[in-house]
């Protein structure tokens, strides 16, 4: 008796290529990629606008992954309760941030008051004294400091004219009494005194050329005895170091106040260099 043979199916059957199925597969894949790109873009925009919500979503996702990894079965009600608590905390934080008062603006710095046109000239008692370190000034800065002292004490038309061809005049000014002042500035060291030759050169131009009513020689040093004698003869006011410091610090009046008589155009003698 012969046994019937059982027909066996081949283990592997090669499937025929289906163009329609392949096209549909790639179409679905492209659609999934495009949808994923839009989702990532929307998530990035949401992270910029609402970082709190994105943070909450990430926390929930991480918690779900950890729970799945540990194979803990959480009920739907428990997940919903925890999610609601997280949303409540996030909402409270956002409301607190919105309710916080804005920072107070910084108080504006008041602009300095402009000087009045009818303001009187500088008063000696009210204006702070100019305290200079004359030893640290250059000759040009010493001329500027002397001019500033004249302005402080009420002089007008103050001008620094020192330089090449100044003919002995470094500062020109008009005193509060209307006298024309010509000043020569000598920025000398302590061991270099102003001699009679310096006074003679200045005396030959201060009255005749610059038409001074009052001539001053201001120095950071001292005057020799012959220089002081020549200055007294010609009517030149000598301002040595100590007198300059007293004038600058407000301990002494301005030099033109001490020489109230002055030398008018009719009573001054012509000072010529000594031979």
From TrEMBL:
UniProt-listed GO biological process terms: DNA restriction-modification system
UniProt keyword Repeat present: no
Membrane-spanning intervals of the chain: 21-44, 50-68
Keyword terms of this UniProt record: Endonuclease, Hydrolase, Membrane, Nuclease, Transmembrane, Transmembrane helix
Restriction endonuclease type IV Mrr domain segment(s): 135-247
UniProt GO MF annotations: DNA binding; restriction endodeoxyribonuclease activity
Keyword Magnesium: no
Organism superkingdom: Bacteria
Gene3D superfamilies xrefs: 3.40.1350.10
Pfam families found in the cross-reference section: Mrr_cat
PANTHER family attached to this UniProt entry: MRR RESTRICTION SYSTEM PROTEIN, SLL1429 PROTEIN
Listed name of the protein: Restriction endonuclease
Biological classification of the source: Bacteria, Bacillati, Actinomycetota, Actinomycetes, Kitasatosporales
């Amino acid at each position: 008796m012969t046994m019937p043979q059982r027909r066996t199916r081949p283990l592997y059957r090669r499937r025929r290529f289906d163009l329609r199925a392949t096209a549909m597969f790639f179409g679905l894949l492209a659609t999934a990629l495009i949808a994923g790109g839009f989702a990532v873009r929307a998530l990035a925009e949401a992270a910029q606008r609402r970082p709190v919500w994105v943070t909450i979503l990430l926390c929930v996702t991480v918690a779900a992954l950890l729970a799945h990894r540990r194979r803990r079965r959480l009920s739907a009600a428990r997940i919903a309760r925890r999610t609601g608590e997280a949303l409540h905390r996030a909402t409270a934080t956002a409301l607190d941030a919105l309710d916080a008062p804005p920072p107070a603006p910084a108080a504006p710095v008041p602009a300095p008051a402009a000087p009045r046109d009818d303001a009187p000239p500088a008063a000696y008692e009210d204006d702070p004294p100019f305290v200079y370190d004359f030893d640290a000034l250059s000759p040009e800065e010493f001329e500027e400091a002397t001019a500033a002292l004249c302005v402080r004490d009420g002089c007008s038309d103050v001008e620094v004219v020192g330089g090449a061809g100044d003919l002995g005049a470094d500062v020109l000014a008009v005193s509060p009494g209307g006298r024309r002042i010509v000043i020569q500035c000598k920025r000398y060291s302590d061991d270099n005194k102003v001699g009679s030759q310096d006074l003679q050169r200045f005396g030959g131009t201060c009255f005749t050329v610059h038409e001074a009513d009052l001539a001053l020689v201001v120095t950071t040093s001292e005057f020799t005895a012959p220089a002081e004698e020549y200055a007294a003869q010609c009517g030149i006011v000598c301002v040595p170091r100590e007198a300059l410091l007293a004038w600058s610090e407000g301990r002494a009046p301005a030099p033109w106040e001490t020489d109230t008589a002055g030398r008018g155009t009719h009573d001054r003698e012509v000072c010529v260099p000594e031979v």
